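Researcher: Good morning. I'm working through a list of sequences from a screen, and I'd like to move beyond sequence-only analysis. For each chain I'm collecting a predicted structure so we can compare shapes side by side. This is the next one on the list. No need for commentary yet; just the structure.
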Amino acid sequence: MRKKLNVTGAVCTAMLAVVLGTLGFASSALAHTGEYAKFDFCPSTKAEVQKCLYSVTTGGEVVLGNKKVPIVNAVTLQGGVAAPAESGAEEDISKFFEATNGITLSKTPQPLPGGLLGIVPPESSPPLVKALSKFFFENGLTGVNSTLELAKPASEIRVSQAHIGRKEGVALKMPVKVHLENPFLGKSCYLGSSTSPITFNLTSGETAPPAPNTKIEGSSGKIEFLEEGRILRLNENVLVDNAWSAPSPSGCGGILSFLVNPVISSMLGSTTAGHNTAILKNTISIATAVAVNNH
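Model: Good morning. Structure tokens for this chain:
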């Protein structure tokens, strides 16, 4: 009887291990330690992956037409980076690889000021007025969340550590879409799609947008070396782009989208190039794949 029970227990243990592995729970022996823990989901064992990148955007804003969405909730970008191209149009630009947990760009909602009605009190308003406005126009029914999502596979992302440092060219190219979430708008209200993405060409240098936008400037950030120089961290990094365009909203309002889409479009105003801005304030950590694999 004891032998039978032991066999049964072994089978159950094996099945539990398979289930946990399927759900993405890594054993402590496979997890990285210390400063390397942030690279747990970097595909560092892939032959093409030369470095691991982990970036957290903690501030900035995305301006879409006449609507400004401050970034108040941290957004994470993580994955692997190939060796940079040595010649051609994409010189010094590297291919990106998807995070092993499938979350390359975190889907982090940001509240839209003024909610569905877009009513925002002036900056000079007393704190009580601002609080009441937020209570009435940014609640569960009228509040709107704006979430930046990848519009194409992670392999379409391009990154350049050299361009970040030199403050020139494209530092991060990323195809995205904006998901507007509200009970009235339904679950499929987007600006941008896999076939018609919004393309950010973010730089740490100066932009050259069409009018009416004017040039803005990013920052390569302050360099910090960790783990005896094996991890490079850029603090106070700022990546900017104000030359991108966004397609008209689609899928808003469910079966009433033919009525709601034009209303949302009218609220946003023009979203053609020269009317939009992305300012991302980041902390970027980069380590070699070899160092990550050894820790």
